[in-house]
Amino acid sequence: MSHRAFSKRVCEDKRDFDEMKNAAVEFYRVSRVPQDMERALHQLFLHRPADLHGYLADYFANLAAPPRISRVTGRQVYDARGRLSVEAEVYCVVHNKDKVKVIFLHVCGVHLVPESQERTEHVMAAVLWINEPLNSFFLCYKPEICSKLFWDFYYITGKKSIVEKPFPAVEPQKPVLQGSLAVGSVSLAVAKTGAQIQGIHLYEHIAPPAQFHIPVSLVTLLSCGKTSPGKLNLLEEVILIPKVGQQVKQIITMALEVQKEMMRIMKTLTNAFVCDSGALAVSHERAEQPLDLIAEACTNLGVPLGTQIHLALNCAAHELLDPSKGKYEVATGVLKSPDELVDLYQTLISKYPAVVALIDPFRQEDGDQWEKLSSMIGNSCSLLSDVSYKSQGPPLPGVRGHILKHINETTVSDLIHMTSEQQGNNCAFLLVQAVGLGLHYVKLGGLSGAERMTKYNRLISIEEELAQQGILGRFFFFSLPCDFSLAGQRNKLS
Fold first, then answer.
1. Could you count the other beta carbons within 10 Å of the beta carbon of residue 156?
2. How far lies 61's CA from each of 57, 65, 192, in Å?
3. pLDDT tens column, 323-341
4. Which of the two residues, 464 and 12, has the higher pLDDT score?
5. Other Cβ atoms closer than 10 A to 36
6. How does pLDDT run across 447-483, given as a tens digit for each residue?
7. List of residues 6+ apart from 20 with CB closer than 8 A
8. Rounded-to-integer distance, Cα 195 and Cα 116, Å
9. Which residues fall within 8 angstroms of residue 158, CB to CB, at 6 or more apart?
10. 68: number of CA atoms within 13 Å, CB side?
11. In sequence order, which residues have a C-beta less than 8 Å from that of residue 441 and are 6 or more positions away?
12. Looking at the domain that runs over 68-199, which CATH code has it been given?
């Protein structure tokens, strides 16, 4: 290379270097990097931490851009019971890195047959909605503000486009939205992501009051519904209501003792098994039989019903109606009219005063029977209704409590809204997120199966965490059964 060519190359390199240096100076000036570095070094000198680089990492992490959702994905999976379900993943950009924050599996709603073409279509539609419109909608949003946006999106876009399928004639007013699993799955996954990014628990993210209380755990002891052996259809679940004021661990210990004693009594039965709810399912012909079994077990343990333990009966009557005959099939081949069912309940409650709550004793259309039964047994037993599907009809007469579940198109915002409406009025059961929503009771099913015991163990750990932090509050409950209507007055720290 000639001297002239070499000099020209040096000049070009110097010019490029000067241009790059000037661009860097301008970039740092606009980004205010020198000022940030100066403040960081000043704070470092003032605090003089043992871990210098760790301190600087934390300092600059606080200056980093907030996490943004980069994509939302869905896929078909199988749940713990081998049923087709939806799994939602939320990815976030955190400190310029794409990270998976939450994977949430959502089980189909109670109105879908466990193994059916309808269930398959719902799951496929939900996965399609998560991977396409919902993924595009959430792109670049902050996880902590997406709950309201998701609700708006659902009404503005999704609800108009998702195919509607009517319920059978039994419940004609309530549509099932095909693919609606996407709504509940993504909503909870995003809520969990927001909590995880902020380094807090989900219950703190949902509602951060000065105190939290632990809902009273209701444990399913027996399953007697249509899927259980025997002729009895009426009682889908017999639920243990413990004496208020006990810790979660105490309640579980007591319920396990009752369950073991029932199993000892039933040891000669060969058709007993554990059902999906985690509770025992035994062959029964009449509604009195499961109640007699529980009463015998409690008496043997020295905790007779009506003192330390009360019971709630989940009747699920809307699943028992024969529309062609206008009657409820309370047992195989045994049909009862709505008025006859009123008499059956009254007889049952008078014989078993430890039963202090009936859940869905009729379908919603039988308003006269709800009112009639409430007037007959209202002083000794409360009637509860499932409002998870947001019925558009007027409030049912005689109802003193409500059931809430996270299903299908129910969003976290829905749960917050519905529970806030019920505060100071009625109790509510919930399957997830019970802590933080101010609910009085939580029903997690029976005490069998890893999936359900994980939930119970998590409730125990939350109670211990709150107690250690000194923010564990308690509800003040009146004597049963009035607590189903009067509970809600928060006491001082226990």
1. 9
2. 6, 9, 21
3. 888 899 999 889 999 999 9
4. 464
5. 14
6. 888 878 888 998 899 888 888 887 776 543 433 444 4
7. none
8. 35
9. 129, 133, 183
10. 10
11. 215, 216, 217, 218, 427, 428, 429
12. 3.30.390.10
- The SS3 assignment for 285 reads coil
One-letter amino acid of 245: G
Determine the Cα–Cα distance for residues 132 and 134; give it in Å rounded to an integer. Answer: 6
Q: What is the DSSP string of 336-392?
A: E-HHHHHHHHHHHHHH-TTEEEEES-S-TT-HHHHHHHHHHHTTT-EEEEE-TT---
Sheet architecture: strand order including 68-78? 68-78, 84-94, 97-106
Quickly list DSSP for 415-430: HHHHHHHHTTT-EEE-
The domain limits of the chain are 68-199, 212-489
Question: What distance in Å separates the CA atoms of residue 455 and residue 444, rounded to the nearest whole number?
Answer: 7
| 179, 74 Cβ separation under 8 angstroms | no
Helix (H, G, I), strand (E, B) or coil at 75: strand
Say what the pTM is.
0.75
Give residue 163's pLDDT band: very low, low, confident or very high (50, 70, 90): very low
Task: Tell me whether the omega of the peptide bond preceding residue 481 falls within 30 degrees of 0, making it cis.
Answer: yes
Fold of the 212-489 domain = TIM Barrel (3.20.20)
**The token pair that represents 35 in the structure block:** 């000022």
Domains 68-199 and 212-489 share a fold: no
